[in-house]
Design brief:
Number of strands: 7
Pfam family, one: Sigma70_r2
Radius of gyration: 20 Å
Largest sheet: 7 strands, mixed
Keywords: Sigma factor, Transcription, Transcription regulation
Oligomer: single chain
Family: Belongs to the sigma-70 factor family. ECF subfamily.
Protein name: RNA polymerase sigma factor SigJ
Organism: Streptomyces amakusaensis
């Protein structure tokens, strides 16, 4: 009983670590379950610091998962995006966005090696000491320090500029939705940054752009085409939801397929749209509740 209570105290944190390292809801769920099995098998009194022990265990599991998944992602059809975490709108007193779980940052983390990504997430997001990280990835503390530093430089260089103001972000997404629902092409252009980037993750399972679409006019035309082909008035459901900790959109088509859209917003304009359409990445969502 005591071991169960202790694990439950750590579960949310463990899942957060696992999701940020793997970018996969399914892999994060599997990692937490495996950590629980290992925790159950641990002899009494073996772990003096349960939090540190479980952090090392979940990190090692996810590091191994990420290493084995790397080859598959390199041959993935089209852009690879993380599996979206979709929830109801957050409380109004949350005035800033959690960048560490945002789709834009998780996509940038895909460019890191598994060791760099693990070190960066553990140290910069969860403040795990380097000696503990070293145990998880099988490196020395000095080596891990260098990994985290290198990862930090790459993230700073590659991460898109992004507002952390929830109100500004939400206002841009609401304007985007209003333009789509109203079929207002010019208004859509007004809310898109001139260098906006649209990424579609269909994984070869559904029709999606296999290369990013760049530029406000090209993106707006692409959206018009998507709406024309896939929107059934009165039956297609569009709703605002929290997508990876920020206001986003969920679309559920009457034929059963769905799409989840996350946005990057800077200075009131949408600079990036990430569309997850691969049905394999949406199996964890309750589509009936989103209709």
């Amino acid at each position: 009983m005591a071991e169960h209570i202790e694990f439950e105290r750590q579960r949310s944190r463990l899942w957060g670590i696992a999701y940020r390292i793997t970018g996969s809801v399914a892999d994060a769920d599997d990692a937490v379950q495996e950590a629980w099995l290992r925790w159950q098998r641990l002899p009494d009194g073996e772990a003096d610091n349960p939090r540190a022990y479980l952090t090392t265990v979940i990190s090692r599991i996810c590091y191994d998962q990420l290493t084995s998944a790397r080859a598959r992602r390199e041959t993935y059809t089209g852009p690879w995006l993380p599996e979206p975490v979709v929830t109801e709108a957050g409380p109004e007193d949350r005035v800033t966005l959690d960048e560490s779980v945002g789709t834009a940052l998780l996509t940038v983390l895909e460019r890191l090696t598994p060791a760099e990504r693990t070190a960066f997430i553990l140290h910069d997001v969860f403040a795990v000491p380097f000696p503990e990280i070293a145990e998880a990835v099988g490196r020395t503390p000095d080596s891990v320090r260098q990994l985290a530093s290198r990862a930090r430089r790459r993230v700073r260089a590659d991460a898109p500029r992004r507002s952390v103001d929830r109100g500004e972000h939400r206002k841009a997404v609401e304007a985007f939705l209003a333009a789509i629902m109203g079929g207002d092409f010019e208004e859509l252009l007004n809310i898109l940054d001139p260098e906006v980037i649209w990424r579609s993750d269909g994984g070869g399972k559904v029709t999606a752009a296999r290369l990013p679409v760049v530029g406000a006019r090209k993106v707006a035309l692409f959206i018009e085409n998507v709406v024309r082909r896939g929107f059934v008035p009165g039956r297609t459901r569009l709703s605002m939801r929290e997508v990876n900790g920020a206001p986003g959109l969920v679309v559920v088509h009457p034929e059963g397929w769905a799409a989840v859209y996350s946005f990057t917003v800077h200075q009131g304009l949408i600079t990036g749209v990430d569309a997850t359409l691969n049905p394999d990445k949406l199996t964890h969502l309750d589509l009936d509740a989103l209709r």
